[in-house]
Amino acid sequence: MALENNQAPMIHHSDRGSQYIYNEYIALLKVSGCEISMALSGQDNAYAERINRTIKEEYIDHWKPKTFEQLKKDVDRAVEHYNNKRPHNNIGKLSPVDFENNWFNNPLFSKPIITIFDNDKLIEIGQL
Questions:
Q1: Pairing of strands 11-14, 35-38
Q2: Is the pTM above the cut of 0.70?
C-alpha cells in the first residue's frame, strides 16, 4: 500500500520478522529498485537501534542542525567521534577503533570474553 502513493526507499532495513522475509514482499522491494538490508537475527536490530539512539541523544540533539546538509555532516562527525574517540565502558573505556587495534595487534592485550548469540548456539570469543 505504501508503494501505491510513494516512491520506494533507496534502502529497506528490517529485523527478519516473518513479514519481511516473505518471498512476495522481497520480490516487490526488488522490482521497486529498493536495496534490502536485513539483520541476521531479530536481536541484531536492538544493537542498531541503540547506536542510533546514542548518536541522536548524545550528538544530534546537542548540535541541533538546521538543514538536511548540516544533519548529514553532523551524523558523519558523530559516527567519527563515536568510533574513534568516545570511550566505551563495555570495552575497557577504549574507543571501538582502539579496542580493535589492541585486539588484533597487541599480543599483551588482555582479551575479554565476548558473548555472541546466533539463535542456535552461544559463541564465546576471547580468553577462557
A1: parallel
A2: no
